[in-house]
Each structure stands twice: as structure tokens, then as C-alpha cells.
């Protein structure tokens, strides 16, 4: 079992056993990590995941609390899990991205302007290894939008805007649960951009295929 998964299970057990009740505040991070035999990093990632599905509520400057856990509050989280685990449409959107975006990257490799290249370089430099998941996903969306714009094809830009929005939640969940997601995304973005800057259409196509396929493969395994 992955360390983050183990941490999630242990916190869940504290809640289901009644040790932590709705509205209760979790012990301080260092104390809870020591008590559960976990690293603080694993505990932190588990808290992020449980916050995403509305089980925990992080109140900055105050602490982390168990939510009310009532059915209305958890409804959004249930819909989220149904989308990921039972609805093949998310995977179909990733398939469409995998079919389209490598060709878009290849077009960008021969059409990109110096100004567009400079803007994309700024995006890659803005993303650091300790970036928050929301920042990672927002950066990723802007990066792919920028490459689509560099292709010079307005129709492609419109298509990818809709498709990228449909896969956003899956990318957030991957960022929360998969170790090294930020570093991997940064390395892949840099490789794609290096290929585009070199006007290497084959390399741009290959790196973009690998980038999209990585998320798609993770999602298939997570279902």
C-alpha cells in the first residue's frame, strides 16, 4: 500500500471508529504523524486528498477539521468519484486529447512566434517542485492553451478548451494522490517546449503523446 493511501486509511479509521467526530479538530500535524507512525509528508498528502472529497476541512490559521459528513455535503464528492471510476467519458476525452494534441504540438513547432515561446518559457519557470496542486493544474491548462494558440489554428483552440475542462478534475486527483506529479509535469512541459523551440516536429509530437498518455494510463489503473 502506498504511504499516502495508508495515511488516508488510518485517518478514515479514526473517523469511522468515532475517535474523530464531525466538527472535531485534528491533532497538530507533528503529533498526529508521530501517533500514526507516518511521515509528515504522507499525512499532508492524505489531508489534501480527504479535503478534496469533503471529508476534511482545512481552515488556514486555525487547523484541520472533520466536516459535518452529512449526505448533502458529501454529494459533490460522490459525484466526483462516480465521474472518475464509473464514467468512461473522462477516458474518452483523454483519448481525444491524445489524438489531437501531439499534432497540435507538431504544428506549434513550425509556427510558434518568439513572443509565444517566451510566454511558455515563463509558464515553465513559474512552476516549482513545491507548487500547490491547484497551481499545477492551472499552469498545465495555460501551457496547453498556449501551445494550441501557437499552432495558429483557432478551431483547434476552441476544441481543446472544452476537452481540457472536462479532464481537469482527473488531473487534480492525480496531482493529489500520485507522488512526484508536479516534478513529472514540469519535466514533460520542458521537454515539449525544448522540442518546439528546436522546430523538431517529431520530438514535439512524441513528448506530447507521452505527456497525455501518462495521465490517461494513471486514470485507467485508478478506476
TrEMBL record:
Under InterPro entries, the record lists: GntR_C, TF_FadR/GntR_C, Tscrpt_reg_HTH_GntR, WH-like_DNA-bd_sf, WH_DNA-bd_sf
Q: Which SMART domains match?
A: FCD, HTH_GNTR
Q: Does the keyword Electron transport apply?
A: no
**By its UniProt entry, which CDD domains does this protein fall under?**
WHTH_GntR
User: Which Pfam families does the UniProt entry name for this protein?
Assistant: FCD, GntR
What are the protein's UniProt keywords? DNA-binding, Transcription, Transcription regulation
Per the record, the coiled-coil ranges are none
Source superkingdom: Bacteria
Domain HTH gntR-type intervals: 1-69
Asked if DNA-binding is a keyword of the record, the answer is yes
- Which Gene3D superfamilies does this one have? GntR ligand-binding domain-like, Winged helix-like DNA-binding domain superfamily/Winged helix DNA-binding domain
Give the matching PANTHER family. Answer: TRANSCRIPTIONAL REGULATOR, GNTR FAMILY, UXU OPERON TRANSCRIPTIONAL REGULATOR
Name of the protein described by the UniProt record: FadR/GntR family transcriptional regulator
- Organism annotation: Kribbella koreensis
Amino acid at each position: 500500500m502506498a504511504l499516502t493511501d495508508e495515511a488516508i486509511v488510518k485517518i478514515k479509521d479514526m473517523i469511522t471508529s468515532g475517535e474523530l467526530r464531525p466538527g472535531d479538530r485534528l491533532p497538530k500535524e507533528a503529533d498526529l504523524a508521530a501517533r500514526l507512525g507516518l511521515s509528515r509528508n504522507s499525512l499532508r498528502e492524505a489531508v489534501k486528498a480527504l479535503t478534496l472529497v469533503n471529508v476534511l476541512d482545512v481552515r488556514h490559521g486555525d487547523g484541520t477539521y472533520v466536516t459535518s459528513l452529512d449526505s448533502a455535503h458529501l454529494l459533490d464528492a460522490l459525484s466526483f468519484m462516480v465521474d472518475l471510476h464509473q464514467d468512461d467519458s473522462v477516458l474518452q476525452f483523454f483519448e481525444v486529447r491524445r489524438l489531437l494534441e501531439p499534432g497540435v504540438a507538431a504544428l506549434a513547432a513550425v509556427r510558434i512566434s518568439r513572443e509565444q515561446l517566451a510566454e511558455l518559457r515563463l509558464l515553465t519557470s513559474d512552476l516549482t517542485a513545491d507548487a500547490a496542486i491547484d497551481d499545477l493544474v492551472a499552469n498545465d491548462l495555460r501551457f496547453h492553451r498556449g501551445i494550441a494558440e501557437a499552432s495558429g489554428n483557432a478551431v483547434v483552440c476552441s476544441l481543446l478548451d472544452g476537452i481540457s475542462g472536462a479532464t481537469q478534475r482527473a488531473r487534480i486527483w492525480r496531482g493529489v494522490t500520485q507522488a512526484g506529479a508536479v516534478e513529472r509535469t514540469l519535466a514533460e512541459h520542458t521537454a515539449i517546449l525544448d522540442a518546439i523551440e528546436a522546430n523538431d516536429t517529431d520530438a514535439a509530437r512524441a513528448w506530447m503523446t507521452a505527456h497525455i498518455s501518462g495521465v490517461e494510463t494513471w486514470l485507467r489503473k485508478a478506476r
